[in-house]
Specification:
The chain has helices at about 5-25, 30-40, 45-70, 75-100, 105-120, 130, 140-155, 160-170, 175-200, 205-230, 235-260. With about 260 residues, the chain is an all-alpha fold. It has one domain. Helix 1 runs parallel beside helix 10 (about 205-230) and helix 4 packs parallel to helix 7. The longest helix has 27 residues, at about 235-260.
Length: about 260
């Protein structure tokens, strides 16, 4: 039975739309945005239920957004599978250790990591590299990158899109739009791994998940369309991706730094 007010239900759909739009546009930001939206905008109070519910909602939204990217030819399936399967194992291992660390400390450290990744992604490409760039799926490199990315994602309790996209770019040499489309398979897989763990413990709010998914479907379609359009402009999608990472990271640093001051 629905337990949210009408306003909370509307806000849940709206929040899901933002999450879906982010996933469709940049292949990441789902969990980072979904958790604070559900806590501070919708008003759910149990952090564990929020994490479990958003993990499942983000997973479903990621798989839904994968379909339009696939239709546009943005998904490289060999790299997607080689990256996601060991990544799921890594996510499970990482989640075990992540539960042993203070949540605020984890988010603070992850925000620093996000900024480092964003700066690396903003580095200008070497002269002539765009013209000669080709996708080279080397199994050992992709599998090791997938496992380590999954472990970090599981440790921090997030879907990991911010890590998966650059991980795919660096391990295969694919372009940003292909990395974004391909990353959604891993985002969905990693999120599902986390969600199953929480669901078994009864920490998933199924009604909220349904509302998030409905909103995410609409937002995701808009995000995929915009991502495809931006990809035609040199480096613009890369700049958008990195800018969003930095903005979210700064907000996370601010929120969690204030907690450290109180300790």
């Amino acid at each position: 039975m629905p337990h949210l007010t009408i306003l909370q239900s509307i806000l849940s759909v709206f929040s899901g739309g933002i999450v879906g739009f982010s996933l469709g546009l940049i292949g990441g930001g789902g969990s980072i945005l979904a958790v604070p939206l559900l806590l501070y905008v919708v008003g759910l109070r149990d952090p564990h239920v929020v994490i479990g519910s958003t993990a499942l909602a983000v997973s479903v939204n990621a798989f839904m957004n994968l379909i339009p990217h696939w239709r546009r030819g943005n998904v490289r399936w060999k790299a997607a599978i080689l990256f996601a399967m060991p990544g799921a194992i890594g996510a499970y291992v990482g989640s075990i250790f992540g539960k042993m660390v203070n949540d605020n400390a984890i988010l603070f450290l992850f925000a620093l990591l996000m900024i480092i990744i964003a700066m690396l992604m903003l580095r200008p490409a070497k002269k002539g590299s765009e013209a000669t760039r080709s996708i080279a799926v080397k199994p050992v490199r992709v599998v090791s990158s997938g496992f380590s990315t999954g472990a970090i994602s599981g440790f921090f309790g997030i879907g990991g899109g911010f890590l998966i996209v650059p991980g795919l770019v660096f391990s295969t040499g694919m372009g940003m739009i292909e990395a974004i489309g391909t990353s959604l398979f891993s985002v969905g897989t990693f999120g599902l791994t986390t969600a199953v763990s929480y669901a078994v413990s009864g920490l998933v709010d199924w009604y909220v998940v349904m509302l998030y998914v409905v909103g995410g479907l609409v937002g995701g379609l808009l995000g995929v369309r915009l991502a495809t359009r931006l990809s035609k402009t040199k480096r613009l999608l890369q700049i958008v991706f990195s800018t969003i990472i930095i903005l979210v990271a700064c907000y996370m640093l601010y929120k969690n730094l204030s907690v450290f001051h109180l300790l």
